[in-house]
Design brief:
Length: 325
């Protein structure tokens, strides 16, 4: 009987690992969507400014109005479509994959120096000297810090420049750009109003919203299926415990203590399995949002415990009827 319960425990642990792997795959697909969306979330909107003010004025207004918000702006030049200015606050831009060097960091937006990052086949005047590459635009030289990987739906000829309140690129009028804004709904709405513009859905948001359900539904159903199997395994263990208790021929308080001792140790071991599965998955699998994985595993373990206790209570209330059936 102990061998059977050990088998159930190992099987339950395997289900937790499989559920974690499916969660990892889901997060990987979501990460790919973010990459294909030029590093922006599904809350991103297009703003077409009518207000004729310098970019630095807008950035200072945002920093004053929303100093603690996570905001990213990508400004696409109306006249030079391949040029995109990037500015962000309280946000890590590590999800831009590079083949060489790095992408922009928060420090790049606060200084006076403008940096450049190039798409895989960016068409822009460049100068290479002493091992350093510079983008040459309007008599200005911008140091290239990285080259991006090829990603579906991203322009391979685009080049990116930093902008900030103290940088040369922020002296242009924002009305010369189409602005992609990513942040909270409230912040985006106020920014659009400030720039005297409406908001529109970017193509990548429309595309990814349509694809997200079809992409993630199979994984969600698989997680549900694996969870049901894990709950069935726990119900089986409760049945094995019932059979074991019947063979002891004990009754009353002794039977209650027997069940509590066996169940307590077993359920404690299940919690340890959940913790172990989390540690193993974080160590070996791609997990972009650890909180999501933790909540998923906690939910599965709680459902397993409920299935175990519920089955145990049902069997001990109707055990004789079940055996005679």
């Amino acid at each position: 009987m102990k061998r059977h319960r050990l088998t159930v425990s190992l099987f339950s642990f395997l289900m937790l690992i499989l559920i974690g792997i499916v969660c990892s795959n889901m997060q990987s697909q979501l990460a790919n969507q973010i990459l294909q969306a030029r590093g922006m979330s599904m809350e991103a909107r297009i703003v077409k400014p009518k207000k004729d003010v310098e970019i630095k004025t807008v950035l200072r207004w945002i920093k004053k109005k929303y100093p603690h918000d996570s905001v990213q702006m990508q400004l696409q030049n109306k006249y030079e479509k391949k040029e995109v200015l990037i500015w962000a606050q309280n946000r890590n831009l590590h999800y831009f994959p590079v083949t060489q060097g790095r992408f922009f960091t928060s420090a790049d937006f606060t200084g006076r120096v403008t940096f450049a990052a190039l798409a895989a086949s960016a068409e822009v005047p460049k100068l290479t000297t002493q091992g350093n590459t510079y983008v040459v635009l309007g008599g200005h030289y911008y140091s290239v810090v990285g080259t991006l990987k090829r990603v579906p739906y991203q322009g391979v000829k685009t080049f990116y420049l930093t902008t900030g309140p103290n940088q040369e690129t922020a002296k242009d009028s924002i009305s010369d750009y189409v602005v992609y804004v990513d942040g909270s709904k409230s912040a985006i709405s106020h920014i659009a109003t400030y720039l005297q513009s409406k908001t529109w859905w970017p193509d990548f948001v429309k595309r990814n919203r349509q694809r997200r359900l079809t992409l993630l539904m199979p994984e969600a159903l698989l997680i549900l299926f694996l969870t049901l199997i894990a709950m069935a395994a726990m119900a089986l263990d409760a049945w094995l415990l019932y059979l074991e208790s019947r063979r002891t021929h004990i009754t009353g308080d002794l039977l209650t203590n027997f069940i509590l001792n066996k169940s307590g140790r077993f359920l404690f071991f299940q919690v340890l399995e959940g913790v172990g599965a989390y540690i193993l998955l974080v160590w070996r699998a791609y997990i972009g949002h650890r909180g999501m994985l933790a909540m998923l595993l906690i939910g599965v373990v709680l459902l397993e415990v409920c299935a175990y206790i519920g089955t145990l209570l049902y069997i001990y209330n109707h055990g004789e009827k079940i055996e005679n059936a």
